[in-house]
Every structure is written in C-alpha cells, then in structure tokens.
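Sample 1 of the test manifest.
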Amino acid sequence: MTKCYISYHNMTSSLGFDSATVFEDLKKGKRAIQFVEDTSRFYKPFFGAVIPTEILNSVFQTLEPNTEYTRLEKMLLLSLSKTLNASEIDLSDRVGLIISTTKGNIDVLGPQSQFPQERAYLSELGKIVQNYFGFKNEAIVISNACVSGILSVAIAKRYIQEGIYDQVFVVAGDLVSDFVISGFNSFHALSDAPSKPYDTNRIGINLGEVATSVLITSNKNNLSEDAVELLGEASCNDANHISGPSRTGEGLYRSVQSALAEANIDSNTIDYISAHGTATLFNDEMEAIAFNRLGLQDTPLNSLKGYFGHTLGASGLLETIIGMQSLHHNTLIACAGFETLGVSKPLNIIKETTTKELRTFLKTASGFGGCNTAVLFRTLS
Amino acid sequence: MEQTYHISSYCHIKNSSVFLNGKLLYASPIQEFSAFIKSAVQHLETAYPKFYKMDHLSKLAFLAADVLLKNANLSVETEHNIAIILSNKASSLDTDRTYQASITDPDNFFPSPSVFVYTLPNICMGEISIKHQLHSENCFFIFDRFNADHLWINAQSLLKRKKAEKVLCGWIDFDDKNYEAFLYLVAENGIIAHSPNDIKRLYKT
C-alpha cells in the first residue's frame, strides 16, 4: 500500500500566521482566547479567539488580490498560498484539493454582509479556492461537523492510495459568526471564561476561527523537516444521538481500534494523544470513557482548545499540525486551562509543557451527528 | 484477480414519487415536500417517532436509506458494517436559512437548539446510523452537481480495504422547494457492476 506523508503546512490563526511561531507561543503558554467585543461582527460580546480583522486584511493585501473576497476566503487563500509556496509543487492533474469546513461563508446570510447569498454554497467556495491557484482538479469539499478537518486528512490518503492523486492539498477553515455563537449558546454550551478542558470546573466551549492547510503526499523526497507518516485512520459513528456524545464512547473507541488495526501497531506505542477536549461536560467525559476502554489512560494527552478555542471544522487539521510540531521538537504542550481532573475515569492530562522523546501520536475528534475520527501519525526520523 | 463490487439496489425520491430499483413504490399528487414525505413514510410503513422532528434534508435521506435497507433484508441479530458516503450541492442551507431568520432580528431573537443541530449536512447520516445501528464509516461531500466518480472512489476505497462490508452512497439535496434523493447500496454481490458509468446511468433513470 502506498505510504502517505503529511508535509508542509500553515496556520492562519488567532495566535499568528505561521505554524512555527505559533508553536513557540504555545510553549510559552500564550492563549488567544479573550473577551471579544466587536459590534461590527458580533451581536454580543463573548469569550473566544478571533483573528484581528485589520491584520488579516493588511496581510491579505500582500497577495495583491484583484477582486473582493470574503473573510473566510481571505483566510483560506492566505494559508494555502503559504503551504503551496513552501512545497514548490506544480499543480498538475495529479494534484488534488480538499476543502474542509462546517459552515463556510455562513456570514453572507447575515444582514451585515455585502456579498450575495449564493456565496454561502460550499461548492462556490471550492471554485474560488480552486480557480485562485489554478488547480486542475475540481475541489472536493468535505463538511462533516467538527471532524471535517481530520477526516479530510484520512480522505486525502484514500485518494492517494487509490491512485487518483499523488499529492493532495487540504485547506480547512471556519469562522466565528453570530450563527454559530447563537447556536452553541442555545445549547448552553459556551463558557463565559477561557475554557478548561477535562477540568472539574469546566463549563463549556470557547469558539475560535482559523484557516489551516497541509500537503499530503506519496513522494518521500523534499518533505518538510517535521513531516510524519500517516499510519492508519478511521471514522466511525456513535449511532446514538445527533447532538450528544455516546455515553460509552462507542464511535471514538471503534475509530481508534480501526486506525490501530490499519497501522498494525499496539496502542502502547502511542506516545501522545491530541484529543478533542471541547471542555463541555459530556464530550470530555465521553473521551475519558473511550480512552479507558482502549487502555490509553496513561498516555500523555491534551486538548488545544484552551489556546485557539474550538475552531470547528478546522480544529482537527490545526491540532494535527501542532502534533507534528510536538513530535519534531519532542515537546508535549500543556493542556491550557486544566488543573484538576474532572472526568470519571483516569486520564494523563499534560499539566506542564515538557520535553519527551516522541515518535507516534494519535489525533482524535468528535462531532454532532455522532461522528468520530482517529488518525495515527509517526515521525520519519 | 481484483475483487469486484456491485450495486445491489438503488432508490430515487423526486417529484413526489419514491422508486426502488427503477420501479415506482409510491406516488403522491401532493407537491409540497413536508406533506408528501409524511404521506410517503406512512404508506411505506417506516414507523419511526423521531422522523417528525427531523429537518427536510434528514427526512429525505432517512426515507431513501430506509427503503434500501429494509429491502436488503438484513438480519437483526448480527451487526452490519455499512458505511455511508453522501453528497449534495446545498449542504444544510435549507435549514441554515431557517435558522438565520430566527436570529436576524434582535427584537425577535429565538435561536433554537433543535433547529441549530440540523445546520450540518452530516446530521442526516447520524439519523440513518441511529435507526439502523450502524457504527460505521461516514463522510459527507459537497459538489456542484451529482458526481459519480468521487462517490465511486470513496466506496471502492472502503470496500477494498475491508473498512466496510457494504456502502450506502448517493446524492441527497434539498434547496428551497427543490429536492432530490438518489441512494444506492454497494456490496460484493449484485447484478449491476459498481462503476462510474453504471452509477451515472442509474442516477438518470
């Protein structure tokens, strides 16, 4: 079976616009979550992590755009342009494009938007990104709730292993918008302070926004210095509830088992788990149950939601890149916001950023609709 | 020799009619979707209390899946590893517009969690998974139009790598008043070859 590698990457995030400097900020414990009061974008203030509009607009001008783009389009184009440039790959018909988002340009449905409502079609977003860079193949858009970003990595690998593409660029992005703020608020799922994943005092999510991109390739030459091999992946449904996680963690448990089986490795070879950790009562509890069923309760684990907030359909890809950087620098990043374990089963939450030799990591995510995804990665060195 | 796969059955729902393997199962003179799908569900004996709380996209996907999976006569004792690969153009925009209308006016602000949860296209796969107890692979794709090639690639990948025994694939689109469902089941056995051309041919019937 063709091997797949995750290589060059970028994040256009609330903590900065490239992965390496953002990772340095994480090591220093810098969190982007703050009290956001911006009446030009949001109907009411909230605790979350947003990209400053002025900075986004001024950096986007360096691309010398010749037409108007929405906020999300600017983020996606900026991120993917950096990953494309770093990779030095020609966009032949062997190169695929996957776009991962839950809500895309959802803000164009709102009363403040200057763009036509047709811009909300995700296939339009796909065309804009495809045409901007001149991809030969039609953009594949994946919209699968909060697993979208990491599921896109799994799907990219399937296209490469089926011999359809040699390389796939994946770009994932979601905005903080009144649409999602009011929706999560209606579930009473938002925290009115920086979130505390797995903590006994956790009360919910902070929303965040990011665009992030990676190259996935079958070519072992000219990889990035922190490239990893994709060992196995799976995405299993809970078949339990559309808006609440399974009480037994069934879908997550099965996803990790299936990914391990494909990777043909034992769970005790996993050095680090980059988990979902939204900091809601039910999500974190479900993960604790699933990881205990898998015998992974002693494996160092964090959630990165305490730094970037929950960036929805982009979160899985964002957190994969941080995992790659963790392996490259042999550094486990502390689970921001965590103090005292507040789930019913033991977990080895990373309390302080520490150095440790790391080879293999597991990325997981879960979302509405009962979806779960698990992907295993291993360093090449 | 490489393992081959087949399309074992297929279902269309469009123009107030439900077809299984090209044969009309149910037709209604009712044009309006909500009333039509309610009458279709009653006629086709898809008794399921949760059906009535679903949004339009989920109702459409749920009924098409139920027609196919009932027809497959799956044994109730064993678990079935049936993956779901669905696609459409309008994502969940029908419900997104409804939800947006509920939050646009600050003086008439009534966001509802039961509407918000359906503002994701993959929720309909969750509904199918719950009803048929499928703890299997899921992915929802958005394309400009029906795209047989991509559905074929994804189903082949899951079957060849033994990630699924069968794959429920297709197109489920709901946009304003327009709707269309075309689902098909891919398995080891069947009469119709699993190929992009056959998928395109069945879609058009």
